[in-house]
Structures are given as structure tokens and as C-alpha cells.
């Protein structure tokens, strides 16, 4: 029988660094999308709080911390990152396993904002995109989820099939920002 | 061009996919006459001025949006969720 080995989406691609900015892969654990049934968002929030101690975020916001995070993930959709979803959540929401479907990376560094400014059509500066803010937007031509998890750290998620392009795009921007800073 | 998504807020036009005339929200009854269906499928006004179009927030939250805009000035006059428009007309 074939011996299969599990590989992360960005295996062999990361980490990379340039100009004081580092791009590395995040092992996000179990990923679960939660789509509340009609009118049940509040009930889902309570069930989530009771089962995994996580709060349901507002639109464009994320709650929790590394290892147990909930991010707003689109119209009527949330993503639970880390904990196993409790069976009770199924009564309030459509619960779908998304583990292994997403490439999850983090961009660290003072110039991380400058790197993303080259790629994302949003104002991601701290005054308009603070810690705990999240957005569904585009990075280059890719649909992504972007969350500021710390003052100088962004979590970026793209479809797993786009992992290589995601790394290529961000690394190219990192080198461009680094070259400009050095000049 | 900037479009205000009713869910996400104001965003760049590149996040949105243009679908077509918002007439798609007024789909005729399955038993409607051939004339009604022909009109629904094929006939569109092409006004110089205010239009109502369906857009899809593809590079964003995934919402379907009715955008009212002016084809002469390119001004976006208003946006609303297609689901709200559909429910209001039901």
C-alpha cells in the first residue's frame, strides 16, 4: 500500500524574509465554517461561547487569539480556527469542515503594511484596520481573508490551490519594499 | 469607481463582478407566456442615465447587490442587498 505523508499547503515554500518582514506558514489546526440558520446568529453565538469559549464577531471583525479564533468570513459566514466544533453548533448553523482547504500564512514586521499596500485594494493602515479587524478582499487576483492579529502581524488566507501564487506575490512585494527601503 | 457593499462597506470596483440588469430578480412564473419569457430573456433597455444592475461581491463577502448608477456620470447612486430587494417585492 502507498505510504502517504501529510504536507502543509506551503511546505517547502516558507518561511521567507526580506527588509525586516517575514512571511511564515500558520498551522491553524481544524478549520470549520459556520453559516447560521435564518435568524439563529445570536443562538449560534451562545452555543459557540458555551462550547469553545469563543465569541461570534461582528462583520469585518475577528475574536479570540492564536489557537482559538473566530473570524467573520463573508456574508452570513464565520470561520472557527483551532478547536473542534461542538456537535451542538449543528443545530444553529450549517457546519462544514474546511481543514486543509486553505493556505494560512502570517506576515510579520513593521513594513508589513507597506507590503500589503502593493497587493490589496484596502486601507490596511492601523488607523482604519486595527488589531481584531478582518476583511474579505483580494490579493492580486486572488480572493483572500486578511486579519490583523497583532500590531505588526497580518494573517492571510487563500485557497490551498493558490498557495504557491500567494507566496510568490507576497515575496515579490516584500523584496520590492525592501529594495526601496535600502535606497 | 467605488461601490459600497451593504455588508463590507465601500470597496474598489475590482472586487465586484458585473452580472447584468437587475431584471433577473423579476423572473416570470414558469407558466407565463412565451412572449413574457422572450421579453425576460432577451429584451433589455440600454438607457443613457440611471440603471439598476446586479453585481456580485466576488472578491469580498459573496453578496449579490443591486447597484443603482448613472451611465452618463458614472455616479453610484445607491446599493442594496439583492435578497432585500427580492423579499420587498415578494
Give the gist of this structure:
The complex is a heterodimer of chains A (183) and B (90). Chain A has 183 residues and is an alpha+beta fold.
Your description of this structure?
The complex is a heterodimer of chains A (183) and B (90). Chain A has 183 residues and is α+β, with helices and mostly antiparallel strands. Chain A has two domains: 16-27 and 100-182, Probable tRNA modification gtpase trme, domain 1 (Gyrase A, domain 2); 30-97, Heterotetrameric sarcosine oxidase (Alpha-Beta Plaits, 2-Layer Sandwich). Chain A has helices at 41-52, 112-117, 163-182, and strands at residues 16-18, 21-25, 30-36, 62-65, 68-74, 77-82, 93-97, 102-108, 134-139, 142-150, 153-159. Chain A has a six-stranded antiparallel beta sheet, with helices on one face. In chain A, strands 4-5-6-3-7 form a five-stranded antiparallel beta sheet. The termini of chain A are far apart. Chain B is of the alpha+beta class and 90 residues long. Chain B has one domain: Folate-binding superfamily (Folate-binding fold, 2-Layer Sandwich). Chain B contains two helices and six strands. Chain B has helices at residues 34-42, 82-89; strands spanning 2-5, 9-12, 17-21, 50-56, 64-70, 76-81. The A-B interface holds A 59-60, 74-75, 77, 121-122, 135-138, 143 and B 7-9, 11-12, 14-15, 57-63. Chain A: InterPro entries: TrmE/GcvT-like. Chain A: It comes from Shimia haliotis. Chain A: This is Sarcosine oxidase subunit gamma. Chain B: One of its GO terms (biological process) is tetrahydrofolate metabolic process.
Amino acid at each position: 500500500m502507498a505510504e502517504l505523508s501529510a504536507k502543509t499547503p506551503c511546505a517547502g515554500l516558507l518561511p521567507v524574509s526580506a527588509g525586516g518582514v517575514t512571511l511564515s506558514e500558520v498551522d491553524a489546526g481544524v478549520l470549520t465554517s459556520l453559516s447560521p440558520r435564518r435568524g439563529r446568529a445570536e443562538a449560534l453565538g451562545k452555543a459557540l461561547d458555551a462550547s469553545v469559549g469563543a465569541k461570534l464577531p461582528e462583520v469585518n471583525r475577528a475574536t479570540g487569539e492564536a489557537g482559538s479564533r473566530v473570524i467573520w468570513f463573508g456574508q452570513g459566514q464565520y470561520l472557527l480556527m483551532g478547536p473542534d466544533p461542538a456537535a451542538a453548533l449543528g443545530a444553529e448553523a450549517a457546519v462544514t469542515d474546511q481543514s486543509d482547504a486553505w493556505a494560512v500564512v502570517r506576515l510579520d514586521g513593521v513594513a508589513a503594511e507597506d507590503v500589503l499596500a502593493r497587493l490589496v485594494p484596502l486601507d490596511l493602515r492601523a488607523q482604519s484596520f486595527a488589531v481584531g479587524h478582518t476583511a474579505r478582499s483580494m490579493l492580486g487576483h486572488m480572493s483572500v481573508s486578511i486579519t490583523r492579529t497583532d500590531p505588526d502581524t497580518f494573517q492571510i488566507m487563500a485557497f490551498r490551490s493558490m498557495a504557491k501564487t500567494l507566496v510568490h506575490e507576497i515575496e515579490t512585494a516584500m523584496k520590492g519594499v525592501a529594495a526601496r527601503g535600502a535606497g | 469607481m467605488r461601490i459600497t457593499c451593504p455588508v463590507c462597506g465601500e470597496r474598489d470596483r475590482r472586487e465586484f463582478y458585473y452580472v447584468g440588469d437587475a431584471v433577473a430578480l423579476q423572473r416570470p412564473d414558469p407558466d407565463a407566456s412565451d412572449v413574457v419569457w422572450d421579453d425576460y430573456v432577451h429584451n433589455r433597455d440600454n438607457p443613457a442615465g440611471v440603471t439598476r444592475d446586479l453585481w456580485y461581491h466576488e472578491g469580498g463577502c459573496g453578496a449579490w447587490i443591486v447597484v443603482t448608477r448613472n451611465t452618463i456620470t458614472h455616479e453610484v447612486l445607491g446599493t442594496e442587498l439583492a435578497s432585500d430587494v427580492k423579499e420587498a417585492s415578494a
